Each structure stands twice: as structure tokens, then as C-alpha cells.
Amino acid sequence: MPETSETAYNFAYLDEQTKRMIRRAILKGVAVPGYQVPFASREMPMPYGWGTGGVQVSAACLTPEDTFKVIDQGADDTTNAVSIRKFFQKVAEVAVTEHTNEATVIQTRHRIPETPLTEDQILVYQVPIPEPLRFLEPSEVETRRMHALEDYGLMHVKLYEDIARHGEIATAYAYPVTVEDRYVMDPSPIPKFDNPKLESAALQLFGAGREQRIYAVPPYTKVVSLDFDDYPFDPSKAPHPCALCGAEHTYLDEVIVDDAGGRMFVCSDTDYCASRQAEQAA
Amino acid sequence: MDTDTLTGGFADPPRDAARAFRAALQALARPGRIETVTGAAPPAPCSMAAGVLLLTLCDGTTGLHLAGDHDAEALRDWVRFHTGARLVRADDADFALGTWPALAPLDRYRTGTSEYPDRSATLIVEMPVLTATGARLTGPGIETEARLSLPEAAAFQANRRRFPLGYDCYFTCGDRLAGLPRSTRVAEG
User: Fold this and answer.
1) What span, in angstroms and rounded, lies between the C-alpha atoms of A17 and A21?
2) A24 contact B CB<8A
3) Which of B59, B118, B166 sits opposite A20 (nearest CB)?
4) pLDDT value at residue B4
5) Which residue of A9, A110, A161, B140 shows the fewest CB atoms closer than 10 Å?
6) Do A32 and B182 touch (CB under 8 A)?
7) Looking at residue A7, what is its pLDDT?
């Protein structure tokens, strides 16, 4: 065991009974794609809202042989990503990386990496509000019944009202999807640009710590973004190339660069952008 | 209590269970894929793979039903000592372990409710052989089509028809296991 490891904690921080409970919830989530499985979320050494759901799912999935990557809105070097990566480096002794293609487990806040994921990878999402119907219907009893009855009319009314008010579906992130023709699911606040990537070779797991829900999208599962025949789903992005690597097919962050209104658009996926720049320099 | 009861658990529970769960997760997320597991030595007639699943998923909060020849004193003692799982009747089970004929009739197992389809049983089916041949599988987790040597097709077709309700299955043989969630569509091979 390396000297830097934290031997005062169990492997991957959580106790075994908790991990078994989370693991059973994950398996039921996989068996019923898009359905939110309740689980007994634990207090973690970080506040709710900082990815406690994702951290608990990662803790239940990680093995000592894994290589772990964490991104926060596409970036490996932001506070949330760095602290979660360091946490598992310490308590699970896993290798870590910033390169998407080297990682076996990737925990993400609000992005799907630009590099297509493979069968050997698991993507773990941090989810703030797992219930796609929550802002339309505050009662959990009611939303649970709506899912049971496959009663999603309210969601279509919401999208229709978007069109009536703005001339288009104005939802730009956390854009609702139907999973395997059954459950309407919140894909977490990823930009709708990422929605097509929800149909993936990788297993995708979603953890909501405060709301105590786990759900899953198995590999190659059918995931359809809600839309209308005359207003089809449009995974739009800013109409610019990346100012650093020139990519025209990636999701961009708008960065303010001075006090005079100057701005630039750069890839939100820092690893993807850096790899492209390295290739161009070579 | 036999001394054999006390042995045969994980040597390093956190890491052994982590590796075992990963195999079980991949198996259920990719129906038809056969995973190899290690670390358990349960008494006969329980296979290594079934023993690994019990050690990884069962504890004092889950009910386990042992069906047919698996309802043997040596295995009951082993399960109680290593997992603390309650031994229950089929209709109360979170997990059920046995051969396919012993697990019948299947309408005894919990399939969840329409509001909580997760409150359903997981069957661990001991198989004489387990190969990627036979019944054709399609659905979530499968890119085009997979094959698995299921004991029959009709029961899994009936299980799929009541989706999102239903039970989920693991098939075990020696140190190998495969998964079949309720979401998989099964056709005769």
C-alpha cells in the first residue's frame, strides 16, 4: 500500500453496507433504464450540491485497478473536479488522469466529453434535480404517479409554451429525454448539444445525493430528446470556432477577456482542446 | 456449526466486493456478456459465482430465498455467517438462488409496483452450462444482438411484457456469470 494512502478510511471511503445498498440501487437502475431508484444517500465530506450523488456512485463502482477522471463543465482543472479527483486518489488509491481515452471511470458535472466513449468506460453524472417534472409539479407523490402512468403530457405543454412564447423550444440545458420509449428522464444539466451523445457505448450512471435518487442509461439504449414534428430537436451551439484549437464541432464556453466587452469562444472540454492543440503543434 | 461455515468469504472484502460488483454491473448492463469472478468458496451446491454475488449484494437488510437443493444446512449457515441475510420465502425475497427448475413457479417472485418497479426480486440461476449461444437477445445494453444459453425463452418474454415491472436474473456457472435484466427482449435461438 502506498504511504500516501489514507488507511483510516475504508476502501473508497464508504462502509461496505452503504456500498452494497448503493450497488443494489444501481443494478435496479440499470434494469429499468431512466427510472429513478430511491437510495439512502449518505452525508459526504462535501456539501450537497458539490456532487455527493456522483461521488457515492463512483465510490460504489471504483475498483483499485481503475483510472479515474473528473470534469466540471468539461474542465479537469476547476475546484470541484480537482477536489473530487484528489478525494478518490486518497481514499480509493486509484490512478487518475485528465485524458478521456485513458479513463475507465469518468465523473462529470454537466458535460459529456467530446471524445466518443467506449465500452470499457463508465460515465457518472452529478445530478442536482433528478425529477424532470419537478418544476412543473412540486409533489413527489404526483410526479411518481405520472411516471407510473407514463403521463408526460405536462412536459409537452411546457415545451409548447416555450414555442408560443419564444418561437422555439428555449430549454438549452437539462433538456428532457425519453429513455427506451418509456421513462422521461432529466439528463442532468448538460447542454442540449450533448443530448445526442446520451446514446453511447459506455454505461451511464446518474447520482443525485440531496434528492436521494440513482438512475442509469445502459450502453446502446435508445434515448430520444423530446420535440414536435414541426419543431424538431436542435442540438445548437454558439456559431463560432474554438479560438484556441479551431474546432467547429465542439461545445464552446464564452470567456470575457477584458473590461471593454472583449470575448472569446473556447472548447468547454479542456482535454479535447489541449489534445487538438498538441496535435497541431506537432 | 461446521468450521467450513467460517471460511470461503472474501479475503479482502472492500476490494474483492468492488471487483465483483464491477463484473456484476457490466454483466447486467450488457446482457449476453459473460464475466469471470473470484474470491468466494461457498459450500455445495452453490457455485463460486453465485457465492460471490451473495457476498457482494446480500446483507442483513435483504431477504434471500434458497430454492431446492440450495436450501441445504451447510449453505444456510454459510450465508447467515458471511452476509447476515434473512432467509425468507420466495414471495418475500429480494434475491433467490437455485437451479431453474427449483426456482419455479416464477409468479411467486416480487416484480415491483408501477410506482416502485425497483422493489422486485433478483434471481440467481445456477446453470449446468453458460455460453454465448442460443436465445437471441436485443434491447438496452446490446448494440445489435447477443446470444446466451438461457434455460428457456417463454418465461423471459412474459417477464419483458410487463416492463417496467419484472424480476431480473443472473445466470451462474462455476466462476462465470451473465445478467439478464427485465428490459431485454428474448427470442428463441
Assistant:
1) 6
2) yes
3) B59
4) 81
5) A161
6) yes
7) 66
Tally of structural domains, chain B: 1
- Domain of residue B114, CATH code: 3.40.50.11310
ipTM exceeds 0.90, yes or no: yes
CA distance B38 to chain A (A): 14
Contact B132, B177 (CB under 8 A): no
The nearest alpha carbon in chain B to A37 belongs to: B118
Burial classification of residue B48, based on how many CB atoms lie within 10 Å of its CB (0-12 exposed, 13-18 middle, 19 or more buried): buried
Write the pLDDT tens digit of every residue in A64-111: 999 999 999 999 999 999 999 999 999 999 999 999 999 999 999 999
pLDDT tens column, B40-90: 999 999 999 999 999 999 999 999 999 999 999 999 999 999 999 999 999
What CA–CA distance (Å, rounded) separates A50 from A162? 30
The answer to whether the CB of A219 falls within 8 A of the CB of A228 is no
| A85: closest CA of chain B, how far (Å) | 18
CB A73 within 8 A of CB A36: no
Predicted model pTM: 0.96
CA distance A194 to A177: 12
CA distance linking residue A282 with residue A275, whole number of Å: 11
Res B148 pLDDT > 80? yes
Q: Which residues contact B58 (CB under 8 A, 6 or more apart)?
A: A20, B64, B79, B83, B85, B94, B95
| Residue B119 belongs to domain spanning | 3-187
Cross-chain CB nearest to B19 (options A30, A37, A63): A63
